[in-house]
Amino acid sequence: MSSLTSSGPAEILLVEDNPGDVRLIRETFRDIGLRNRVYVVSDAVAAQAFLRREGKYSDAPRPDLILLDLSLPGKDGLELLAQIKTDGGLKRIPVVVLTSSANAEDMRKAYDLGANSYITKPVGLEEFFTVVESVVGSWLSTWKLPREGEG
User: Fold this and answer.
1) DSSP alpha helices (H): ranges in the chain?
2) Which domain CATH number covers 41?
């Protein structure tokens, strides 16, 4: 699997509070041969700190792709998405909403706020692998974005 940019492996930020889903996503990445780096935070506050390189995340890389769950403790994923997409330094990072919510209103809000994709987490394990491989594989092999600092 190729990376999002030609200058090395893509950096992926996974914002997910369910340890089972984190494990499934990591296993899927491993099974499909994804060699990019995945960083996991479990809530919007930690995601903001990671993206702003604050506190323990002062050395965090700028992610090339964000996988975002909507159902997070405290501030929900839609609030975080709004903050990302209105921040001049972050708004170009593709955000793929990967959530269990099939609610049409959540989907509409996510796209209105600037989500690049909205994926409902499938229930079955095999379907979950297929969806993650398809979505993440597409972003990492097709879409090209400049890395931070590139002209």
Assistant:
1) 19-31, 44-52, 77-85, 104-113, 125-142
2) 3.40.50.2300
| Residue 1 near residue 137, CB atoms below 8 Å | yes
Residues 6 or more apart in contact with residue 107 via CB below 8 angstroms: 101, 118
pTM over 0.90: no
- Answer whether residue 142 is part of any domain: no
CA distance 76 to 29: 25
Residue 32 lies in a domain: yes
Q: For the chain (length 151 residues), average pLDDT per consecutive 10?
A: 50 94 85 82 97 97 94 94 96 92 94 93 75 70 56 47
Phi then psi for 97, rounded to 5 degrees?
-80, 120
Q: How much is the pLDDT for 143? A: 55
Residue 85 lies in a domain: yes
Instruction: Give the C-alpha separation, 121 to 133, whole Å.
Output: 12
Give the range of the structural domain holding residue 28, as residue numbers without chain letter: 11-137
Q: Is residue 146 part of a domain?
A: no
The answer to whether the beta carbons of residues 131 and 122 sit under 8 Å apart is yes
pLDDT recorded at residue 81 = 98
